[in-house]
Amino acid sequence: MKSILITGGAGFIGSHVVRRFVKRYADYHIVNLDALTYAGNLENLKDIENRPNYHFEKADIVDAAAVRKVFEKHRPDGIIHLAAESHVDRSITDPLAFVRTNVLGTVNLLDEAKALWGDNMSEKRFYHISTDEVYGSLGDTGLFTETTAYDPNSPYSASKASSDHFVRAYGETYEMPIVVTNCSNNYGPNHFPEKLIPLFINNIVNMKPLPVYGDGNYTRDWLYVIDHARAIDTVFHEGVIGETYNIGGFNEWKNIDLVKLLCNLMDSKLGRPEGTSEGLITYVKDRPGHDRRYAIDSTKIKNELGWEPSVTFEQGLAETIDWYMENEDWLRNVTSGDYQSYYEEQYDKR
Ligand SMILES: Cc1cn([C@H]2C[C@H](O)[C@@H](COP(=O)(O)OP(=O)(O)O[C@H]3O[C@H](CO)[C@@H](O)[C@H](O)[C@H]3O)O2)c(=O)[nH]c1=O
């Protein structure tokens, strides 16, 4: 039996990875290690929580002793590391939180893996999930490839770039079998409504303003989270040790075009007159250091491992909207408590 530790498994991308692994690999011992911060939610895993191959451990990766206990108990052969602070706006107001979780937390995990595996690293794997933001910002043309130089601009992307470097350093220095993927913007069910798509879905439902940063002409490449989880499964099992793979949707959208599409889809789903949601669009002060364009070339993973997106953007977005509308309780629960004050604070600042 293979023991697999998935960090951040109660979060957005992590929960889709945990669900996929628990359902597909009945003979694996799957451990979800999560600190259950504001963005982690065990509700995301209700449908699989009683499966015999699933185990949950509440621990913060910043706490090395707590991580060690989990390692000693479950003795993982493979680690899929997704736990991270992930919101760029939060990193601008509290960079240290990102250093702690994303840098220190990652090094703690690497150290515990090294201690557990010792000299016997064959058949082991440390897989770090990272972001295309480490490459910085593009002009109107070009794509990030695996050889693009790192050039992070936000405290968030600087912390992820740093953690990528530590993972690679453990590969070089201690011969740890590592693999890294850098992925574009994800969307889909269970996405915390601080990020563009779920925030705007929530605001449209509640007829609240849609705060578009700057001129709205910022470009992102969007990938359905379920396709990302499938890519992670592929890289975990078939990716070549020491390699980096870029993952993206070849699906670039300017924010304002995406927001207008979302508005139109929501109006028709909610039975509201055309143009109702677009009327909520409010241009607000820009995000400091806002990266203009991300666009990623995922040819390598397609050619070498046979992965490519399976869901079109129109299909994925429609499924996402349906999910939020069918899961009002989930949305209400995650937007209660501190959420409101966080949201208002962000909005007031602009
Ligand atoms: C929340 C919010 C965002 N935006 C803009 C900022 C960005 O250009 C775009 C998407 O913003 P966000 O949803 O915050 O995502 P972004 O900053 O691109 O980063 C995401 O995508 C990255 C991958 O590229 C991940 O590594 C990050 O964890 C993830 O948060 O929309 C707005 O115009 N208004 C908003 O209220």
TrEMBL record:
What PANTHER family is this protein classified in? Answer: DTDP-D-GLUCOSE 4,6-DEHYDRATASE-RELATED
| GO molecular function annotations of the record | dTDP-glucose 4,6-dehydratase activity
What does the record give as EC number? 4.2.1.46
Supply the Gene3D superfamilies for this chain: NAD(P)-binding Rossmann-like Domain, UDP-galactose 4-epimerase, domain 1
Q: Which reaction does it catalyse?
A: dTDP-alpha-D-glucose = dTDP-4-dehydro-6-deoxy-alpha-D-glucose + H2O
Q: Which domain of life does the UniProt lineage start with?
A: Bacteria
One matching Pfam family, short form?
A: GDP_Man_Dehyd
What the record says about family reads: Belongs to the NAD(P)-dependent epimerase/dehydratase family. dTDP-glucose dehydratase subfamily.
Sequence ranges assigned to domain NAD(P)-binding in this UniProt record: 5-320
Identify the cofactor(s). NAD(+)
- Annotated transmembrane regions: none
User: Which lineage is the organism of this entry classified under, starting from the top rank?
Assistant: Bacteria, Pseudomonadati, Bacteroidota, Flavobacteriia, Flavobacteriales
What is the name listed in the Swiss-Prot or TrEMBL entry for this protein? dTDP-glucose 4,6-dehydratase
Would the keyword NAD turn up in this protein's UniProt record? Answer: yes
- Residues in the signal sequence: none
Keyword Chaperone tagged: no
Q: What class of enzyme is it?
A: lyase
The entry's keywords? Lyase, NAD
Q: Which GO terms describe its biological process?
A: nucleotide-sugar metabolic process
